[in-house]
Specification:
heterodimer, A: alpha/beta, six-stranded parallel beta sheet, 20 helices, 36% helix, globular, B: alpha/beta, 6 strands
């Protein structure tokens, strides 16, 4: 089918469809989002009989995909690493029960972290769950492993995890496009309640069966490190996997200064063949394990006398590996002392909410209406509300709501409890906000629940939500609106307001807070479409903004409103015309009324 | 016609989220592909794309990994001068910096792409103006660049983007010295 440049995530999607998957389910999350997006696009374009869905959350995605797999068809569930935490319940059990059709769980890790709360290593999770895990080094390899993983999953009747990292997901590479196929396999769920509905007794049997399965798998060729560079008589052996291995290969080629070393690559970091690891340790004087992010391969060496890595800090035990770190580590292990390379300290400009983002007005209004409040928030673009002092906490998906309740209970018996606002995005609310809302209501918590509704999953690249519809390729029927859900959860009052009207939003927030005394949880839906949606942006009024002479450079707009299109000079603030979208919201912010908006841009 | 340069090339791109660095990187990758070269790139997605520092790298030749080691880049393309200055350490000795900045003479090639884009009436086109200039410096055929940009631009943005690369490609030498 020819060659094409594919993003790692696109390559994985091609792999899934080349293996004939009949069902793909995912919840968006960087760095994994483009896998499902690409699969959705390909399936729509080709009209393939494959069901692709943006599930409401990762747990649901795994459960939907798993049922299709145990009906003897092929399934993929895709998520980021913290999404696997959400999906851990079904994943742990699925390992015991096994599968009949191929079941691939793609979990993208984010060493760094670049766009995540943790640097957790899914290979560790795989070990914990007793599921084989593959660690691709490049987009091309990710695609190849994806295709092979389905057959492997069926051969050993086990789910398989593919663990790409950010640098694989978001690398582009030339790949040979595979032929996309759809397995013509009728669903065939073989009833076996002692497996698929096992109670604790039979689970013990399943656990023993799983252990035996893992024994078999550890004899597979993937379970043995393969020699990629150098010879077995080298003094030092580097054992590596994933993109770290690719860095090593590139620096070995580019800088010819390390002698007497060889490199082994591990394709499947769990389960491994312990004897082949021991053979490496016995053959070479020194072994250095270079892997991201935790010492998963390293810990599988039973005797670690001459083995180094993250456990003895030969490799830094936090943060992403880079070519520079890999070079340093190679220098250290081979005893090369070099002067420090050129300055590599870099200042990273922190991200901020887009100019014209509706969330900004909402945060500003909440601060004004509920001063000295506690603002619990959540995962999404709007976490960036912390730049303007509108976010006090961000724990994990859905925690805005439960933490608001927790703070209420912590402070309720104090003389003057602070006002509390839970601030959460629309997609995040669907994902994990509903149970804690019910929980808060039935436990008597009092707070204002603000749902920032921009009608999309914005941070990860504009995926649909249950309210917008179009979450699958093959159904365009019902949608579910936030108002319906809030009512169903028992919320008595829900205000809906556009946060572009900051003054109005302040008043509504005060009113909502007053009502919490009687009603417990009172909701406000802050509704303004994401301005990254080009149509929405075109449809809204745009003003020509300027700063008048009344400006005395007090900086209030910059610290309290923090729009990237307003920069502070020595004597005056300035509008950056290349960033300003002319939303006009800042007019209401300036204490001296120095910001002017003229109709028509 | 110029003889094609078939040596290994490592290009680091840096700017702020929203400036269109991904499209720039994608275009350069596709051009390299059309020239028959092997390549691997790396991009920034997610949180950082909201106005934060964004980098992309393109390695043309027989590379296996996506990141460029410090002090190894043949070229740095800066869409923003502050960021570009912070990343100069990525250049090897003799590597060149091509940067979008208002004041001339700060880098090997300094061009006011933002100013030119505003003049064109499309403030978002600075990335394409930079692509045009880089294509000229790299000795790429403008028709090939046009063709790639048309292929990868989302729908109605193609003609705007092509205008951008032409502006950058054809700008007088005094504009980027």
């Amino acid at each position: 089918m020819g060659k094409k440049i594919l993003l790692g995530n696109e390559a994985i999607a091609y792999g899934i469809l080349a293996a004939g998957a009949n069902l793909v389910a995912s919840y968006p999350g960087t760095p994994a989002s483009e896998v499902c997006e690409t699969a959705m696009g390909l399936v729509k374009r080709n009209g393939s009989p494959c069901h692709v869905e943006w599930s409401i959350n990762e747990k649901t995605a795994v459960e939907v995909a798993y049922a299709n797999a145990i009906a003897n068809r092929r399934s993929a569930a895709i998520m980021k690493q913290v999404g696997l935490n959400v999906a851990s319940d079904p994943v742990m059990s699925a390992a015991y029960m096994g599968t009949s059709g191929g079941f691939l769980i793609v979990v993208a890790d984010d060493p760094g972290p670049h766009s995540s709360q943790t640097e957790q290593d899914t290979r560790f999770f795989a070990m914990h769950a007793k599921i084989p895990v593959l660690d691709p080094a490049s987009p091309e390899e990710a695609m190849r492993m994806t295709i092979q993983a389905f057959a492997f999953s069926e051969e050993f009747k086990t789910p398989v995890i593919l663990r790409p990292t950010t640098r694989v997901c978001h690398a582009r590479q030339l790949v040979d496009l595979p032929e996309l196929t759809v397995l013509n396999r009728q669903p065939d769920f073989q009833k076996d309640p002692y497996r698929w509905a096992a109670t604790p007794g039979p689970r013990l049997k399943l656990h023993k069966e799983l252990n035996a399965k893992l024994q078999d798998i550890s004899r597979h060729e993937w379970a043995r490190p393969k020699l990629l560079y150098g010879t077995p008589d080298a003094r030092i052996a580097i054992v590596s996997s994933g993109v770290a291995c690719a860095y090593i290969m590139d620096v070995l080629k580019a800088f010819d200064r390390w002698d007497d070393i060889c490199v082994y690559k591990v394709d499947m970091p769990y389960p491994m063949d312990p004897s082949s690891l021991q053979a490496i340790a016995n053959t070479h004087e020194k072994v250095l394990v270079v892997e991201e992010t935790e010492p998963v391969i390293e810990m599988q060496f039973v005797n670690r006398e001459n083995v180094s890595g993250r456990l003895d800090s030969a490799v830094p035990n936090a943060g992403e590996l880079t070519p520079e770190i890999v070079m340093q580590v190679l220098d250290d292990v081979t005893g090369i002392h070099r002067e420090k390379e050129k300055e590599t300290a870099k200042k990273q400009r922190p991200p901020s909410l887009c100019a014209g983002c509706g969330h900004r007005g909402a945060f500003y209004a909440i601060k004004k209406a509920l001063p000295k409040g506690i603002y619990t928030s959540d995962i999404g673009c709007y976490t960036l509300g912390l730049n303007l002092g509108g976010v006090d906490t961000c724990l994990c998906m859905g925690a805005a709501v439960s933490q608001a309740a927790g703070f209420y209970h912590a402070y309720k018996d104090t003389p003057s409890p602070p006002p509390i606002a839970a601030i959460i995005g629309d997609s995040t609310y669907f994902h994990a906000g509903i149970p804690p809302t019910i929980n808060a209501l039935v436990t008597g918590a009092r707070f204002v629940l603000v749902i920032l509704d921009n009608a999309t999953t914005a941070m990860t690249g504009q995926q649909p939500t249950p309210a917008t519809g179009c979450v699958t390729n093959d159904y365009a029927g019902r949608t579910l609106q936030l108002e319906e859900i809030l009512t169903g959860c028992g919320i008595k009052t829900t205000f809906v307001h556009d946060p572009y009207d900051v003054k109005g939003f302040i008043e509504i927030t005060k009113e909502a807070y007053a009502k919490t005394q009687q009603e417990g949880v009172v909701a406000i839906i802050a509704r303004h479409p994401c301005i990254r949606d080009r149509q929405a942006m075109k449809d809204q009024a745009s003003y020509s903004m300027s700063i008048s002479e009344e400006c005395n450079a007090c900086g209030y707009c910059v610290t309290q409103f923090e729009c990237p299109a307003i920069e502070l000079g020595e004597d005056t603030a300035r509008i950056d015309r290349s960033l300003c979208i002319g939303c006009g919201v800042c007019v209401d912010i300036c204490p001296r009324n120095a910001i002017k908006a003229e109709a028509g841009k | 016609m110029m003889r094609k340069d078939m040596s290994d090339k490592q290009i680091i791109m840096v700017g702020r989220g929203g400036q269109g660095i991904l499209l720039l990187a994608k275009a350069l990758a596709e051009i390299a592909f059309k020239e028959g070269r092997n390549l691997i790139t790396s991009e920034t997605h997610g949180m950082a794309m909201r106005g934060g520092t964004v980098t992309a790298s393109l390695k043309i030749g027989s590379f296996e990994s996506p990141l460029i080691p410090a002090g190894s880049a043949d070229m740095l393309i800066g869409l923003e001068e502050t960021e570009a200055r912070d990343y100069l350490y990525m250049l090897k000795d003799g590597g060149i910096a091509v940067v979008n900045a208002r004041k001339q003479g700060q880098f090997d090639h300094t061009i006011d792409a933002t100013g030119m884009a505003l003049e064109m009436g499309s403030p978002g086109s600075a990335n394409m103006i930079m692509l045009g200039l880089v294509s000229r410096i790299m000795g790429y055929d403008i028709d090939e660049v046009r063709c790639v940009v048309r292929e990868i631009s989302p729908g109605k943005w193609a003609s705007q983007n092509i205008k951008g690369i032409e502006t950058g490609y054809n700008c007088p030498e005094s504009a980027f010295e």
